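Working notes for the structural subgroup meeting. M.R. asked for a predicted model of this chain before we commit to crystallization trials. I am recording the input and output together here so anyone reviewing the notebook later can reproduce the run.

Input as submitted:
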Amino acid sequence: ELQKALSTLLRENIEIVGAGRTDTGVHARKMIAHFDFGPLDSKQLVYKLNKILPRDIAVQSVDEVAEDMHARFSAKSRTYHYFLHLSKNPFLRAYSWQMYGDLDFEKMNEAAKVLMEYRDFTSFSKTNTDTKTNDCTITEAHWENVGGNQWRFTISANRFLRNMVRAIVGTLVEVGRGKLTIEQLRRVVE
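Returned structure, recorded in token form:
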């Protein structure tokens, strides 16, 4: 949709390159993309893009960058936030995973720290992908309460594999439910 809108406004076939992708049901709040084009009025372009883009896509800014900048390959780090809530809330339904029962977030944080000891995350990757390596460097992984029964998992790394964050969250929830020990988590990763 963004590519189509840019091509329409700039009256030229524009190809965009995104920094990554999102899985079904995942929302990107700060997705970076790049496209090649000459000088333009950035503020006016943002305004016009937001007028013609669908309601669920918004452009925050358009900035000129170095010619060798690549949205995907120049990124040094990426951060994901995964939200869950422990009580029914219709306003969170589309943006947070509703869990039933109690979770031990202290134990989940202990397990999240273990992830930073490893590099090979094959066990958390979707199979049959075109990646050359399943090595990732996780630099941050923790749960925090963001109010009441709402929790946010933050994970940062140099790169992520397909479905990796979702698989990690599901595994950490199993730790929080007492169905998986930290030692069993280690064996899953290994």
